[in-house]
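Sequence in, structure out.
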Amino acid sequence: MPFPVTTPLAARLLADPEMAVCLKPFMKGPASVKDLALARGLSLQRAHYRVGLLRKAGLLVPAGLQPRRGRPIKLYRAVDTDFLVPKALVPPGVWRALEAAQSWQEEWEKALEACDAGYGTALRVRLNPQGLLVFGPEEAEEEPELLAEGFPPLLNLWSAGLYLRREEAKALQREIWALYQRYALLSPLGKEEGQARYLLHLGLAPASD
């Protein structure tokens, strides 16, 4: 059973992707403020602030101490790994932004522009070699160059021309999910040395004709 959220502060924090994702290290077991800072690439000061908010909202609780020389490290854990937030507790503006994935979209746009100076300069509508209609901001390079080793690991693709039977769409859904899980498990506890954070958007839905 999901944990029922009953306070506006907890609802607001869970509806904010940047705050909600800070619960992840503590959902996997007892973790420290430093663990959050490392997982999210935050300063210790910002990590302390976010832990304080999550504790105030009742989403984090103390989980003991980790011994070390000097003062032991405080550990916290999430009160659950599954939360149910009533729509009535979420401010309407936040709900609309969440439905539109607004905060993620803004970060996605900034990341694309940083990696590809040509992104967003024009709209491109084309038929790709597989016969699918592809549309979106113009890409700086053609597909072979995009996949070249020297090009950033960047992909921005929307397709409105993928025709599948239901069983084929289910197979694609399962393959996408399995692929995501495979790469997500490369750093289950957060960022490791040599790793960088990548935004990933996966979407699949039947379109209305």
